[in-house]
Amino acid sequence: MSDGAGSAIGGPGELAGFLPYQLSVASNAVSALIAERYRKRFGLKIPEWRVMAVLGDGGAGGGPMTQRALTAATVMDKVAVNRAVKVLEDRGLIGRVPNPVDGRSHLLVLTDEGRAIHAEVMPLARATEADLLAELAPEEQTMLRRLLASLRARAMALADRT
Predict the structure, then answer these.
(1) Measured by CB atoms within 10 angstroms of the end CB, which terminus of the chain is less buried, N or C?
(2) 15-161: what CATH class?
(3) What is the per-residue pLDDT for 38?
(4) Domain spans of the chain?
(5) Torsion over CA: 43, 46, 48, 51 (sign)
């Protein structure tokens, strides 16, 4: 039987052709590669780096962020963000500043040391990305980015309906 998109349904090896499985396996492989590079050089795990990357990139609104906004921006579970924030705070890489809009919450920001590590990690991140994409022609890289953005947008739209 075929699903109309060229993949067999119900046959042997069905999981290997299942798009969510393929995306998960690819993501895990890329994350494992990056995690090892970041861990060796900076002692950072992936959730910690994601938090630093979003804060270092200026956050969703171009500056410090609440933990709730950080959770949304990293598309990570709030428990994972909470753990990463705690580790980064304990290491002195992020800090809390008062939230002028809501006195009951704080904003998270990179410290000077956090910004310095962010500045070192970004070239490594770009080099890793280049290594991963080296086998793809420029137009294939553009297509891959466009397709991934489209899949993410569609998944989010479908999730909003439930």
Answers:
(1) C
(2) mainly alpha
(3) 82
(4) 15-161
(5) positive
